[in-house]
Amino acid sequence: MSQKPTACLVLADGTVFYGTGFGATGETQAELCFNTAMSGYQEIMTDPSYAGQIVTFTFPHIGNVGVNPEDDETQDPVAAGMVVKWNPTEPSNWRSAQRLTDWLASRGRIAIGGVDTRRLTRAIRAQGAPHVALAHDPEGNFDVEKMVARARAFPGLTGLDLARDVTCAQSYRWDEMRWAWPEGYARQNAAKHRVVAVDYGAKRNILRCLASAGCDVTVLPATATAEEVLAHDPQGIFLSNGPGDPAATGEYAVPMIQQILKDTKLPVFGICLGHQMLGLALGAKTVKMNHGHHGANHPVKDVETGKVEITSMNHGFAVDAQTLPQGVKETHVSLFDGSNCGIRMQDRPVYSVQHHPEASPGPQDSYYLFERFARTMSDAG
Question: 0.90 cut: is pTM over it?
Fold first, then answer.
């Protein structure tokens, strides 16, 4: 006799997947995406850019190295839940401090195992990122009709400003640098550049990369005004990653960026949502993608040098390169679908990229962008 399913994933079109539940019990609704990274499930679950989303992991070995406090990109998981092929095994890694199943349960995140993730991924590719309901009940009692209704009632991410939900409550200083063997995380005590980082949902490793590039980093909330940013006398402005619809966050973020660009000649560097915010501030538009880019194996071409970098990505919206105004140049494109992955102003040290040069998880091909940011501040005096 087969074991009764203890978890259920329902798509808004009525498709149902049953499996084994782990983590927290209950039900949640979100947009469903898939991530192709072969490592870094903890960093993915704690990436604030995944707010409002459930992540399907295409790599089957999820949970096999456990979790540890050093790999969190923010204090708690932000992704609403996870979908995996195989149920997590006992962790086997010297850095493991806790089992994935226990970690998810203690932080209120639902997960389902035993799902045909290939079938699910094909459906996402074909239909676009669906709205779903995910439930975990140890007794296996599910009202599928009600779950379908709740999945259909999920409002989606279009028009949704989620940066306010994940940004910091108040400003703070950051001096922790990138992890290095055998010391771990060292502290920056000889910073050369004052940087204000605007937090739309910043990953810790982005801040570490800034510190490692010689920056004295002050982090401000997403709603910071131009006056509040400039009050810290920065030598450079950084615009962080984050979740949600860039057009919605842009209601308050874009005027701030435009004021900075009008009143100063400071270097500006943006990543992910920060890239989209800069694009909007310069006059471009953003569009919702069919299923987005989520993974640590995305080829991006630098159109100015011809170099191809393998990058980490996590975004469901993109800057529409066809709307870039005169004086703003496209610098990077995705080799998967040709979508925009970078822009820069032609006459000023103002630039941004859609991909994640800080990795975590992912390759480190693009780390040089942080060093370039530091050089632009040195050149600016």
Answer: yes
